Amino acid sequence: MIKRMIPNTITLINLFSGCMALICIFTNALELVPFFIAIGLLSDYTDGLAARLLKVSSELGKELDSLADMVSFGVVPGAMLFYMINETLGIDQIDFYRPSTFWGVIGFLVTLFACLRLAKFNLDTRQTEGFVGLNTPACTIFVLGLLIIVLKDTYGLRHFVLQAPFLYGLSFVLAYLLVAEIPMFSFKFKSLKWKGNRVRFLFILLTLVWIIAFPLGLALTLVTSSYVLLSVVLWLFGILKKEGIEGEEDIVEGEEY
User: Fold this and answer.
1) Closest among 171, 164, 139, 161 to 218, alpha carbons compared
2) What's the rounded Cα separation, in Å, for the pair 247 and 244?
3) How confident is the model at residue 190 (pLDDT cuts 50, 70, 90)?
C-alpha cells in the first residue's frame, strides 16, 4: 500500500503546486508563480516514472494525473492570460460590475480546451505512444514565459506582449493547438541510445541553447515555439504519423507530460 501511495502523493504535490500558483496570481505574488509551476512540472514528470519503477501503475493514478494537470496546466495558464489581459486594460482589481473586466475571461478559453484535451487524451488510443496536439505542460510553459517577460520587461518586450489583440489571438491559437490533429513527439526515453532518440536529444540541445543565450522568459517561449514547429515539420515530412504517432525509428512515445 505504501508503494502504491508514492506516485499518487507526487501527483497530489502537482495539484497543490497548481493551487498555490493560482493563489499567487490572484494575490499579485506573481514572482512566486514560476517556482510553483516548476514544482508542478517536476511532479508531473516524476509521478509516472515512480509508478513504472515501483510497478504500481493503476487507473486511479491515471485519473488523478489528469485531474491534477487540469488545475496546474489548465486553470493556471488561463489565469495567467486573464491577468495579462487585464493588465492591457489597466484593471488592477476585478470588478464584474465593470463590463471591461469580462474581456479578461477570454484567457480561460485555454482552460476549457485544456479540459477537452485531457479528456480526449484519456480515451484516444493513438496517444499511447505520443501526442496529438499540444500537451498541456508545454502550453503552460509558453504562457509562463510571457508572464516572466511582462514581469521583468525582458528586452523591453512588456509593451509588445501587453497588447489586447495579441493576447486574444494567442488564447485562440493555444486553444486550437491543444486539440489540433497534429502529431507531436513526447519526452519519454526508453533508453539513452542515439538511435530512436535523435529528435529528443537534438531538441534538448536546442533547449539548452535557448536557455543559455536568452533570459528565462524569452527562452521558455522559444522552447515551446521550437517544439511546435519541429513537430509540425516532422509531421509534414512524414516522420510523425497521425496514426500511432510513430516514425520509422520509433522516435515518439510517452504520456501527458
Assistant:
1) 161
2) 9
3) low
pLDDT at 215: 97
Question: Can you list the domains of the chain with their CATH numbers?
Answer: 2-236 (1.20.120)
Give Cα 192 distance to the centre of its chain. 24
Give the end-to-end CA distance of the chain in Å, rounded to a whole number: 25
**pLDDT at 252 exceeding the cut of 60:** no
Question: What's the grid cell of residue 119?
Answer: 479528456
In the block, residue with C-alpha cell 493576447: 167
Mean of per-residue pLDDT scores for the chain: 87
Distances (CA, A) of 180 to 78, 122, 133: 18, 16, 5
Note whether 175 and 110 are within 8 A (CB): yes
- Rounded to whole angstroms, the Cα distance separating 97 from 124 reads 42
pLDDT at residue 243, rounded to an integer:
39
Indicate the pLDDT class of residue 187, thresholds 50, 70 and 90: confident
Distance CA 142, CA 149 (A): 11
Instruction: State residue 235's pLDDT score.
Output: 87
